[in-house]
From TrEMBL:
Residue ranges with Basic and acidic residues bias: 80-89, 1216-1235
Compositional bias ranges of the Basic residues kind: 1263-1272
Compositionally biased tracts (Low complexity): 1241-1262
Region (Disordered), start-end ranges: 68-89, 1198-1272
Protein name stated in the entry: C2H2-type domain-containing protein
Transmembrane segments: none
Signal peptide location: none
InterPro entries, alphabetized: Endo/exonu/phosph_ase_sf
Domain of life: Eukaryota
């Protein structure tokens, strides 16, 4: 298609999209316009959508008429192609430009819509008498930004906004103005100086103008003060109450010293409220006094601190790379304002600390800005403060801050003088200073106290001498190694000289500024700088050495870190000296509110149900128990008191002012020890109602502790822990020891109860329920599905505070305990005659304590006698419920519990052998598992959870029985676990399912690592010491309850990955760096001196195995051994074929199977486990040798530490003989089983006329895979996957041999060998039968 151009036709073609195409001037009218044949119709249609003009106009080619000759034809074609390509590229560029502009507008519109959705429509409401103030930096603002600021303030209910760096009248260069200017928009008003401003909402703007708008502007315009009425609705004709808002903006870091001095002089002038000259004068300015509420906020461009004692370290990691401002100078100027403080600093009245930061894109650091100054007397009016980083709607890098003030003057509660607390860390440790402090304290108290000293005088003397010797606990000391006098003397001289040099350097800089060409001043300044740098280097080295020595003593003073890990962790937190650590959330309620809450919980009166009383009277009591009950009232011996003092934990002290660590220190002196024993015996013999009158006891301090469960502000998620006086604590230890021994001799304790009993713990409870889950899962994997067994977990609501003590007293009296004896008298003193005070603060000042109250029921949480008393009460409660549950199930035609059969010997065998073992065994029925107040009921699904017309479900029967005893089941904490199926149900902190248990362990380990990681950052500890801390905290969380579960290898690798992350952090390396340096994690573990997770877990599991082997069966405290060797007792069992699921899943390996592998790994024969584990020393030696072997193997896997440890030479145990060799015990058991099967087959009569089973057709037989021939006397073998027939000679020549012990099959190819291993290693494969 071609079109002839008309002569003199316009050559410019303008399109609707604004793109013009200009054609070159025409030489003659014979120029032709030809459509480019290189573009298809589709292409032209697409172009037409963007450019409405005809398509051929876009493909214009200028063709000059030349003589038709072949020599220039190619040249003309190349020229036309270049023109077409150029036009096409230009066309594509313009189209992309238009499309990108459209996309950019759409993207901006979508982002703005998303930001509007994220911002709440309405901010939090403002209370009456309160004002909500915002502080923000506008960063070279303009009118559009100010409109956005108004919208932001409206959404967040900011009534007044302090704005820094504001210039709404200039878009580009800020012009200084000499007067304040006003900017109004939609009723909001901004008064500004070109530097700073104050934004008022419509109501405050109207109230301000009603008093003639008083304001004060500094000379530079960097300080602006506005006087406002406290109540916007006040009548202007009356004398109002006034408050002042001051906005500031400091000069930038490039400012001169004169500019800085001028600015801080203006701030100091604004801080003197009475000297401010507000114009115009009005009723507000005349009402200003020294007590007027005044706040100064804005962008200081500097880091401000209240305590400049350590100017080198006050900034921490927030100090920028390039000094943003003269920090020391700013600090000194702010400190000159005597009665002003930083409202963002930590204050007990506020309770927390917030930092205002902004991010510098240049230095990639966070700077501290926007601090607010407030008179110290007005600090009580600051209700709250919030740091808001989400200011994207203003397109600013700075943070916004929000303050809520109480405008009306309120009378704050008189807090009273702060009670000084002694620094008890001086007494801890094995250093010479700690020993000297303990000796000094003991000597001074012994001199001041005699044999006839009353307990009140003894308390006062001990409290005074402890405070004198140990010193007062500093409010915040993040460097405890600087507390000692020696360290203070060493570092004090350097600090003094550094301060002098800093002052000299500042004076020289000022002199050099006046005379820049003075060579002597310049040389003196260089020498001063050099000396200052040398002193700072000496200071850093001294601090490092002091810190290293201190922590070496701390670690040496904790030889048993696992036994007192909580106290050790509290000491470890003081390691964190760099940066900021996450402050704990403060108690949100007052002491009186907690008092009302706890008193309401225990306010219900106690009662005794008639059925419960009848049940208690029917309990059997032997004469031995009655005789033992009489010994409870015997006099307390010195041995009992000494044992109680040894078991006394060095925790928090009570209301008597004697911490437990001080009492343990004083007990080392013989004279003071006899005095303390006399106090304990006096308390034992005194009636409980007279303890308080004689000064031997006082109100217990009840401290609310959060259970780490959300929501934080819910009082039901808190627990009130009781702190007793020191002498009652010792007596409680004596009573608890006597009561525990008496409890174990009675018939009350249940074998299934594992809480608060000697030798039992969470591992026993988890071991029992996990073994049930493993065996039922194994039976189900073999094809058994007759009954669905489940576990129902229930919890009591506020078990200790709501305990009904009347059944407890009846149980004691029924078992022969004398009602009028001193034992019952002491118990009544602890649980019936004691008052409690709520303590919410760090000291015992009146502001931290509530009024005393006395609960009507319950046991005190934290009381030394409460665990034993609860075991007595709950054991009777469970026995009462177990008597009712079988009767209810019998009426419904059901059975309770899970049947279990077991053997006493620890003869380990496979799951298949345990299910087909016909030897005589012991039978039992598992109905319940108890740990403290956590109860787990076992049984079938129908019996536990399904009710019918004949009776209630087992869980409901148990809950009703518990209600008869005065307790209540928690309505929201009933859980169900179906045995043999994965679930997320956990018991005592550990998951029942192995996968869930590993997930919880990993989460627990990560939380522990998140807590200790900040403390270990930049610490001066050696790598070996860091490795010990890692094993103490991180591994303990990862390996929780690992000894009672069969952990898969994939889960071990997951836990090892967490440990490897911590190792890399402590060694300050990363994976790419390790690859470059050819270092692996074995090298890191060698540097830290720690083993692998697998080696440590193997050691714990073998310790547990030895503990189970040494248990004596038949005792109530060794019930866990029942589940070590046994399975569920569900009668005869026929295994299904593997094709129908009759095999054990690889994910559900049982604990006995893992024990067999561990025994082989430790070089032991599982058939002689009882004899080997009976000798504790020999068992420990075996475990130590295997642990050393694991360390050696880990070192061999490293690159740089291969020769650091010797080889212990431990070889894994294997069966003697060939692959079919058996131990004598296993061979005898196999023969016995074969004999029993033959006898059973002979005894079974054959039915007459029975159909003869037909043989399988040959066609079906061909479809079955041929079995591998294992006998060497045969001439034909089948090799691997292709089933090819070969001879014995050919098979012997094959080089691929299976390395499994006892197999030894040969294969022609590696693929055939891998296929054989994959099939034979599965559960039920050929390798499991060897």
């Amino acid at each position: 298609m071609s079109i002839e151009a008309v002569p003199n036709e316009p050559t410019n073609h303008s399109h609707d999209n604004g793109v013009d195409f200009a054609a070159p001037p025409l030489a003659s009218s014979s120029i032709r316009f030809a459509c480019n044949s290189g573009f298809s119709q589709n292409t032209r249609f697409c172009h037409a959508q963007f450019f409405p003009q005809p398509v051929f106009a876009h493909h214009v080619s200028t063709e000059t008429v030349f003589p038709q000759s072949y020599r220039n034809r190619k040249r003309r074609e190349r020229h036309q192609n270049r023109v077409r390509e150029k036009a096409h590229l230009e066309r594509e560029r313009k189209r992309r430009m238009i499309w990108n502009q459209v996309c950019r507008e759409n993207r901006l519109r979508e982002n703005q819509a998303q930001e509007q959705e994220l911002v709440p429509s309405n901010g939090p409401p403002t209370l009456d008498g309160h004002v909500r103030i915002g502080a923000i930096n506008m960063e070279k603002s303009n009118p559009e930004k100010l409109e956005q600021l108004v919208r932001l303030a409206s959404r967040r209910n900011w009534e007044i906004v302090v704005v820094s760096e504001v210039s709404p009248t200039s878009r580009h260069h800020r012009q200084p103005i000499q007067q304040c200017r006003h900017w109004k928009w939609e009723g909001w008003e901004m008064v500004h100086t070109g530097m700073v401003g104050v934004l008022l909402n419509p109501s405050w703007s109207a109230a301000w103008h009603a008093y003639r708008a008083p304001k004060h502007r500094s000379n530079t315009g960097r300080v602006l003060s506005v006087a406002l009425p406290c109540d916007p609705s006040t009548d202007p004709l009356r004398r109002p109450s006034v408050w002042i808002v001051t906005a500031v903006w400091a000069p930038i870091s490039t400012s001169t010293t004169e500019e800085l001095d001028e600015f801080w002089d203006e701030v100091e002038h604004a801080a003197s409220t009475t000297e401010l000259a507000f114009s115009p004068s009005c009723a507000l300015s005349s009402a200003i006094s020294s007590n007027t509420l005044h706040m100064v906020a804005g962008d200081w461009n500097a880091q401000l601190y209240e305590d400049p004692a350590e100017p080198a370290d006050v900034l921490g990691r927030y100090r920028p790379t390039a000094r943003h401002q003269v920090d020391d100078y700013a600090t000194c100027r702010v400190m000159a304002l005597g009665r002003w403080v930083h409202a963002d600093s930590h204050r007990p009245a506020i309770g927390n600390r917030h930092r205002g930061t902004w991010y510098s894109a240049i230095h990639r650091r966070y700077y501290e800005i926007d601090w607010m100054l407030l008179p110290r007397a007005q600090l009580q009016r600051l209700v709250s403060m919030t740091l808001r980083h989400t200011t994207d709607d203003l397109q600013t890098q700075h943070s916004a801050k929000e303050y809520v003030f109480r405008l009306a003057a309120t009378q704050a509660r008189h807090r009273g003088p702060r009670v000084p607390r002694p620094d008890l860390s001086i007494l801890r440790g094995t250093s010479e200073a700690a020993a000297e402090a303990r000796d000094t304290l003991t000597h001074r108290v012994a001199q001041a106290c005699g044999p006839d000293t009353s307990f009140d005088d003894f308390r006062r003397v001990v409290a005074h001498q402890t405070l004198t010797v140990c010193g007062e606990m500093p409010r915040s000391c993040r460097k405890p190694w600087l507390r000692s006098p020696a360290a203070s003397r060493e570092i004090g001289d350097l600090n003094t000289e550094c301060v002098c040099l800093r002052r000299t350097k500042r004076e020289l800089q000022q002199a050099l500024h006046d005379t820049p060409d003075d060579a002597s001043t310049l040389s003196q300044l260089d020498a001063c700088r050099q000396r200052h740098n040398d002193l700072k280097k000496q200071q850093r080295c001294l601090l490092r050495s002091l810190e290293r020595d201190y922590w070496e003593q701390v670690l040496a003073s904790h030889p048993t870190q696992a036994a007192d890990s909580f106290r050790f962790y509290k000491t470890l937190r003081t390691l964190q000296t760099k940066g900021t650590y996450k402050a704990a959330r403060q108690n949100p309620f007052a002491p009186d509110e907690w008092r009302d809450h706890f008193s309401n919980i225990s306010s219900q009166p106690e009662s005794l149900h008639a059925d419960v009383e009848n049940f208690i009277t029917t309990l059997p009591v032997s004469d031995h128990v009655r005789q033992w009950s009489l010994t409870l009232d015997a006099d307390i011996t010195d041995k009992e008191i000494n044992t109680a003092m040894q078991r006394l934990r060095a925790g928090a002290g009570g209301g008597d002012g004697i911490p437990p660590i001080v009492l343990k220190t004083l007990f080392q002196d013989p004279s003071l020890a006899s005095l303390i024993r006399a106090y304990v015996r006096r308390l034992w013999s005194t009636p409980a109602t007279e303890w308080k009158d004689q000064g031997l006891d006082g109100p217990g301090l009840q401290v609310p502790l959060w259970k780490q469960k959300e929501p934080f502000a819910n009082m039901d998620k808190w627990r009130g822990v009781v702190l007793l006086w020191c002498i009652p604590r010792v007596l409680a230890k004596v009573l608890n020891h006597r009561g525990q021994q008496w409890f174990e001799t009675t018939d009350l304790p249940l074998p299934e109860s594992f809480g608060f009993r000697t030798g039992l713990g969470t591992d026993d409870a988890l071991f029992m329920i996990r073994r049930l889950d493993e065996e039922i899962s194994a039976w189900q994997s073999f094809g058994w599905n007759e009954t669905t067994y489940e576990a129902g977990l229930m919890d009591l609501q506020k078990a200790y505070p709501t305990a009904n003590k009347l059944p407890f007293w009846h149980l004691l009296f029924h078992h022969g305990v004398q009602a009028q004896g001193p034992f019952i008298n002491a118990l009544r003193g602890f649980h019936c005659c004691r008052d409690y005070c709520i303590k919410t603060g760090p000291d015992t000042s009146p502001a931290s304590l509530s009024a005393p109250y006395r609960p009507a029921r319950g046991f005190g949480e934290g009381d030394g006698t409460s665990p034993w008393a609860w075991n007595v009460l709950y054991s009777g409660m469970v026995r009462y419920s177990l008597a009712k549950r079988p009767a209810s199930a019998a009426r419904r035609g059901l059975a309770c519990g899970i049947p279990w059969r077991w053997h006493e010997s620890m003869d380990l065998c496979s799951s298949w052998t345990r299910k087909n073992d016909g030897r005589p065994s012991n039978q039992t029925c598992v109905e319940v598992t108890v740990f403290a107040d956590d109860t787990t009921l076992h049984g079938s699904r129908q019996e536990l959870h399904q009710s019918d017309e004949h009776g209630s479900a087992g869980m409901d029967v148990f809950a009703q029985a518990v209600a008869d005893w005065g307790s209540t089941e928690h309505p929201d904490k009933r859980e169900v676990h179906t045995y043999g199926t994965p679930s997320r149900v956990c018991l005592v902190g550990g998951g029942i399912d192995p996968g869930e248990a590993v997930n919880r362990s990993i989460q627990r380990g990560l939380k522990c690592w998140a807590k200790i990681r900040p403390a270990l950052k930049n610490s001066r500890l050696s790598l070996q010491q860091k490795g010990k801390l890692l094993m103490t905290f991180l591994y303990s969380g990862l390996a929780y309850s690992c000894k009672t579960r069969a952990t898969r290898q994939r889960d071990v690798l997951r836990m090892q990955a967490v440990m490897n992350t911590a190792c890399r952090y402590l060694c300050r390396t990363r994976l790419p760096k390790m690859r470059e340096q050819h270092v692996n994690h074995s090298d890191l573990r060698a540097l830290l001196g720690i083993p692998t997770v697998q080696a440590a877990m193997d050691r714990e599991q073998m310790r547990w195995l030895g503990h189970v082997c040494r248990m004596h069966p038949g005792l109530s405290t060794t019930y866990a051994k029942t589940f070590a060797r046994g399975t569920i007792d569900v009668g005869a069992f026929q295994r299904q074929a593997s094709a129908h699921g009759g095999r054990i899943s690889a994910d559900r390996k049982s604990l006995p199977d893992m024990w067999v592998q561990l025994c082989h790994k430790h070089g032991l024969d599982e058939n002689h486990l009882d004899e080997t584990a009976r000798d504790r020393d020999n068992w420990k030696a075996i475990l130590d040798r295997r642990f050393a072997q694991a360390l050696f193997e880990d070192r061999q896997a490293s690159h740089r530490h291969m020769d650091t440890l010797p080889n212990p030479g431990l070889e894994p145990w294997s069966r003697p003989g060939d692959r079919r060799g058996m131990s004598p015990t296993a061979r005898e058991r196999k023969s016995e089983l074969q004999r029993q099967r033959r006898q059973a087959a002979k005894a079974q009569p054959k039915a007459k006329g029975a159909a003869v089973p037909m043989r399988r057709p040959a066609a079906a037989a061909k479809r079955q895979p041929r079995q591998v021939q294992r006998h060497h006397d045969k001439k034909v073998y089948y090799a691997g996957h292709n089933q090819r027939k070969v001879s014995a000679e050919d098979r012997e020549a094959w080089e691929y041999v299976c390395d499994f012990p006892g197999c030894g099959l040969k294969f022609e190819t590696s693929r055939a060998l891998n296929i054989h291993k994959g099939k034979a290693n599965k559960p039920g494969g050929t390798h499991s039968q060897l």
